[in-house]
Design brief:
Its EC number is 4.3.2.7. By secondary structure, the chain is an alpha+beta fold. It is about 40% helix and about 20% strand. Strand 7 and strand 8 form a beta hairpin.
Length: about 230
């Protein structure tokens, strides 16, 4: 069920490192983190330039009903997944159904929602050692550079980012948070630069190896000609 958390929390990508799922203890990745609004308001916002008009009181997501028979299993899985410095909170979740009319997606408007209900959510703690307090570490360019090269037990960090953007686009609004899309653009640009360097390296290798191969082939042909002449 699509909807929003309102006022109590804020979700930002790159505020927290990942030493397990999308990075390693030696080279942390970057993940999206939901934090308490009161804590977030004490921090500088390095993403302000890419989403100056965003509704900062809303965090979009999806809520799931877990049957009682699976609750213990699911809780154990989530506790393991969110092991790196998160705590469980119960906060109002506002279900939301976007308009079916053609045109631009509706702006987030909880007034269109059904009555809210309490939902369990994992929120990052200020005491989390993985939280990036240094504004330089949370700068979009720095975050993109880390994402582009990081990998953990769950896979590449950039895969996490790309899947997050698709998930946000698919919850009914048709678009992701501006700062997430900005990070996707930055990481893909870095990928393009690296692919270009890789292609150039391959070309440089070909420039070296092809003449050598041609030389060896010519040398072999000369040996064949000499052998034929001797036989004649």
């Amino acid at each position: 069920m699509t909807g929003v958390f309102q006022a109590i929390s804020k979700a930002m990508f790159g505020d927290s490192g990942s030493a397990d799922h999308r990075g390693t203890p030696e080279s942390n990745g970057r993940v999206v983190t939901v934090i308490e609004r009161s804590f977030w308001e004490t921090l500088s916002d390095p993403h302000q330039d890419v989403q100056p008009n965003s509704n900062e009181s809303l965090v979009w997501g999806a809520a799931y009903h877990i049957p009682a028979s699976h609750a213990e299993e699911v809780n154990a899985y989530l506790d393991h997944r969110e092991i790196n410095g998160y705590s469980v909170h119960y906060t109002p979740f506002h279900p939301y159904t976007p308009s079916t009319q053609e045109g631009e997606p509706d702006a987030p408007d909880p007034s269109n929602s059904s009555p809210p209900f309490l939902c369990m959510v994992y929120i990052g703690l200020p005491t989390n050692s993985q939280f990036l307090r240094n504004p330089t570490d949370r700068d979009p360019s720095s975050v993109a550079g880390v994402i582009a090269k990081s990998r953990g037990q769950s896979g590449e960090n950039k895969e996490y980012l790309y899947l997050l953007e698709k998930a946000l686009e698919g919850i009914g609004l048709g678009y992701a948070d501006a700062h997430v899309t900005d990070l996707v653009r930055r990481v893909r640009a870095l990928e393009g630069v690296r692919e270009g360097r890789k292609s150039q390296s391959e070309i440089d290798v070909e420039k070296i190896t092809i003449p050598e191969a041609e030389y060896r082939e010519d040398e072999a042909m000369e040996e064949v000609d000499e052998h034929v002449e001797r036989k004649a």
